[in-house]
Amino acid sequence: MKAAAFDYVRAVDVEEVCRLLADAGDQERKIIAGGQTLVPLMAMRMARPDMLIDINDVDGLSGVEDKGDYISIGGCTRQRLLERSEIVSDRLPLLAKAVRNVGHIQTRNRGTIGGSIVHGDPSAEIPMAALALEGTIVLRSVSGKMEVQLEGFFEAAMMTAIEPDQILTEVHIPVWKGQRIGTGFHETSSRQGDFAIVAAAAQVELSGDGAIVRAAVTAGGVAPSPVKLRGVEKALIGYQAENFAIALDRLDDEIDPDTDVHATAEYRSRVAKRLVARAVADAILEAG
């Protein structure tokens, strides 16, 4: 099957992108950068935009910059660049681990961080890591720009709070600065590189005596959108590393898995407990 007919514009700057989106009227206009999700959907005619706005030539939308308290990542930054970035590996190790699990090298060469976040797949690795670390995104339109928390941005499966006239230009992810910080990321899929059925991400900070003083935990594939496990995080605080498992009792209260062609709800719930436990255990071990 081929995509339905559409107009194509290669934008030169963010202002042009915003103007084209604002002038859409009754048309559906979509931004394309990597196209790793949008193009297959168009080929199956599950998406039929009237216009594609290509942002690959727009300056200032790609790159990784250390801002001290947070890392700023351009919305059009390729996933492969994130994977190879020393700033990301040194300052955002959880994101680095998550990105390595995204698809294959070929798809990471084209896919972008902004595209992954805006698409809002409930099991996607990048949104999980960014959500765990309480990331924010910058959205631009003809009305100006606004910074939005990722928690609350994911509304349902493949549905996010971005407006039709907005473009995601930046992702801001806070940096943890403690001495004993560790991360863990685990997922299960039908085959290497396939979409995750269930995934878990964790980052912890330990005190000098090995107690957990800070925790960030998310799960994917267990609800209509990635879930920040606030109850699990809160329960972990104060526990000695070897006793953390009791905190996982909070997990069932925070997830809402569904049955689909890939897995039953019961399977997703059972696997989520194990993957969250592994991710937290890895984070504790790495924190030393």
What proportion of the residues is helical, as a percent range?
Answer: 25-40%
Named at the architecture level, the CATH assignment of the largest domain is 2-Layer Sandwich
Structural class: alpha+beta
* CATH fold name of the largest domain: Uridine Diphospho-n-acetylenolpyruvylglucosamine Reductase, domain 3
What value does the Rg take, in angstroms? 19 Å
Spatial sequence of strands, sheet with the most strands: 4-5-10-6-7
Task: Give the strand content.
Answer: 25-35%
Q: How many separate domains?
A: 3
Report the biggest beta sheet as strand number plus sense, adding barrel if it closes: 5 strands, antiparallel
What is the molecular shape?
globular
Total helical elements:
10
Termini separation comes to 53 Å
Show unreliable segments: none
CATH class (first level) name of the largest domain: Alpha Beta
Mean pLDDT: 95
Order of helices and strands: EHEHEEEHHHHHHEEEEEEEEEHH
